[in-house]
Amino acid sequence: MPLIQLIYTSCLVSSAPEVIAEIHQTAKLINKSRNITGMLLYANGGILQVLEGDEADVSKTYLSIEADKRHTDIFLLSKNKISARNFAAWDMGFRQLTDTEYGDTLLDADIFKADRNEIENRVKPGAALAMLVLFGHGIEVIN
Fold this sequence. Notes:
alpha+beta; 5-stranded mixed β-sheet
């Protein structure tokens, strides 16, 4: 079956640490059961996430994210066929960007500070994927 890579952004209704931890833990469990891999970045109430796997499983997971009341302003950046996974090591890698990391680049500002009505014009999928890969380096693999 062909692999799909889906990248989206969203805002969290609550940025309480326990909510973020719960979202990450739930993502790991669901993704493991569906053979989905990916990476989640969090900063300033915003999420940038990539999901990789079978198209039906990734689509089902994304639909559940869209229905999740903890997210708002969900925006699909890209959904493409891929020949290999970029995040094969993680059911769901996670990194909360520090104040030093967050906002150091224009892309960070576009993703995590953008007016959600303008994000389509301000954030390019290739740049978002590059950011996910960049911040994914150096994360200890714990599944």
